[in-house]
Amino acid sequence: MVLYQPEIPGNTGNIGRTCVAVGAKLWIVHPAGFQLDEKHVRRAGLDYWKHLMIEEVVNWDALTEKLSPRRFFYFSRFATKTIWDASFQNDDVFVFGSESSGLPESILDRDAPNALRVPTTGKVRSLNLATTAGIVLYEHQRQVRSLGE
User: Fold this and answer.
1) Phi, psi of 89 (to 5 degrees)
2) What does the pLDDT profile of the chain (149 residues) look like in tens digits?
3) What span, in angstroms and rounded, lies between the C-alpha atoms of 115 and 112?
4) Is 118 annotated among the ligand-binding residues?
5) What is the CA radius of gyration of the chain?
6) FRET label pair with 9: which of 2, 29, 57, 92, CA 20 to 30 Å apart?
7) All structural domains of the chain with their residue ranges
8) What gap in Å lies between CA 46 and CA 44, rounded to an integer?
9) Considering the domain 2-144 in this protein, what is its CATH number?
């Protein structure tokens, strides 16, 4: 799970907690809009934060260097394909942009087969970042069945 320049500490804390729940690693691409030790991050992550596999990188290039050659999926409300169109694998990387501006065009090609969105009705512009990340992580788990029953 990758958060590209996240801005809201509570979202990051909630996403971190979900990562712990499914055994995923959380990557933070800087700059972030807060410090990871802020009380809002800790409060949202609760006492699970100590179990989180987390790594911070200074920029996008540093992240891609560390995670290449894995498959990357990019999430945006503007993507033309949905998560139902994807077949996920164990080592896939899920990339989410900042809450206010999403992913930059230099990273996201909204028509690419690896650009995905969570389907919603036309009445909702977008879902909360932590909600979307949770849906994606659990759809991944459903597909790969890597959690014990």
Assistant:
1) -125, 165
2) 999 999 999 899 999 999 999 999 999 999 998 887 767 776 766 678 889 999 999 999 999 999 999 999 999 999 999 999 999 999 999 999 999 999 999 999 999 999 999 999 989 888 999 999 999 999 999 999 865 55
3) 5
4) yes
5) 14
6) 92
7) 2-144
8) 5
9) 3.40.1280.10
Q: Where are the beta strands (DSSP E) in 22-133?
A: 25-29, 53-57, 72-75, 81-82, 93-96, 115-117
> What is the C-alpha separation between 38 and 65, in angstroms, rounded?
28
Calculate the CA 104 to chain-centre distance. Answer: 15
How far apart (Å, rounded) are the C-alpha atoms in residues 29 and 19? 16
Which residue do the tokens 């990339």 mark? 95
Tokens in use for 24?
């995923």
Is 106 marked as a binding-site residue? no
101 is in an annotated binding site: no
Buried b (16+ CB within 10 A) or exposed e, 73-89: bbbbeebebebeebebe
CA angle 76/81/83 to nearest 5° reads 80
Residue type, 141: Q
Closest CA to 60 of 89, 25, 31, 101: 31
CB-CB contact of 27 with 133 (8 Å): no
